[in-house]
Amino acid sequence: MDDDNPLNWPKSKKILNLLLVAFHAFMATFTAASIQCAFVDIAQDLHTTVHQATYLTSLVIAILGGAPLLWRPLSHVYGRRPIFLLSLLFSLVGNVGCAVSPSYGTMALCRAITGFFISPAASIGSGVVSETFFQHERARYIGIWTSMVTIGVPLAPVIFGFVALRVGYRWIYWILAITNGVQFILYFFFGSETRYIGKGSSSTSEKSSAVARWLSFKRIDPQTLTLLDFISPLKLVMWPSVIIPAVAYSMIFLWGSIMLAIEIPQIYPQKFGFNTQQVGLQNISLLVGIIVGEQIGGILSDKWMSLPTKDKKRHSPEFRLWLSHIGYLLTIAGMVVFLVQLEKSTSWDITPLIGAGIAAAGNQVVTTVSITYSVDCYPQDAAAIGVFVTFVRQIWGFIGPFWFPEMIAELGLGKSTAVSTALIVAASILPTMLLQWKGKTWRKG
């Protein structure tokens, strides 16, 4: 047995490394959403509009989708650990730049730098899980990674609403920078390299001294990098078992995460006169929904796949997709409750937030089930799948905030439910049903 192979590591080492990578992934979306409760404060400080202030979040959302195309091939050749360390160091620099930015343009530039460097773990984390854990436990541990990615969006305003109100919104950036510094130290000493292509390929042996493991940075894969390596994940658009779940999940993410994260900070201050702290607290409902949803998408998903079959063979990956329909229906129902009840409200009440929590639960179910399904189909391409899914999700999430205001202005909140329902049925439910029917045939073809 090769002790350098991450699959053969002790379970404690696997989980410690996963937690470091998952928290890094969490920091990507956490950083993107960090200022969403302070749009009004930022607009006043930088002499711009609230709508323009939201672009500081939309910009990071877009970069989180595109940047991993660069990071994936570099991490394949030089290893995951050096890329993660580089990511944290320059994310720290970008956040410090945001904290001292004197103008909107400068802050936008520093936000772009931060988004670029914080992005690797949020996409290639699926590769780390696939390299470390066996198939029968994969959904549970992919679920930990995807949960951290999803939780970052609603948790940021819960925490930073207090910060912006008590000490000013610029301290949001200082706290992010400090966190990046702590991450760097922890990953330097406790993070392990999971990129493994055969005996002797690891940058260090498990028998090496601790100092050697900390300081050893060298090329792992001798292949020569070409332009095609950087865009190769985009070829997955031709693989039905990847593109269909990616599009279906991205549509759910748009409504069950992005729409709620962008519109609550804009609607609640205007409709109810909330300050940054009060706006942030609304996101607790999303956190509860995500935690509940992961019980279905992660733990139940693995148990679902372990159900006995008549011929005692393993279920095909398509069998997992039945659980995604639970997520689709929860998201549709949650958005209906959120939008309709919010339109009816003349003073604050909890019913819209119940809908938001239901939608968030649906989003988390679909997140874990969709990504795990694609990784089950092509485990050797797990990192590329993570990059591709992130690319599709973030680009679609970037576009949404530009047309949400016009939709709400034209239709109102209540009638916007027709748009959300129609898009989820067309882009998520129907294509998934087709994939359940033809997916196995398409893969073999």
TrEMBL record:
Major facilitator superfamily (MFS) profile domain residues: 17-440
Pfam families, alphabetized: MFS_1
Signal sequence bounds: none
GO molecular function: transmembrane transporter activity
Subcellular location: Membrane
SUPFAM superfamilies: MFS general substrate transporter
Chain segments annotated as transmembrane: 15-33, 53-71, 83-105, 111-129, 141-165, 171-190, 242-262, 282-300, 321-341, 353-375, 382-404, 416-435
PROSITE patterns hit by this protein: MFS
InterPro entries xref list: MFS, MFS_dom, MFS_trans_sf
Superkingdom as given in the UniProt entry: Eukaryota
GO cellular component annotations of the record: plasma membrane
Membrane topology of this protein: Multi-pass membrane protein
Record keywords, A-Z: Membrane, Transmembrane, Transmembrane helix
PANTHER family attached to this UniProt entry: MAJOR FACILITATOR SUPERFAMILY, TRANSPORTER, PUTATIVE (AFU_ORTHOLOGUE AFUA_2G08910)-RELATED
Record's protein name: Major facilitator superfamily (MFS) profile domain-containing protein
Source organism of this protein record: Clonostachys solani
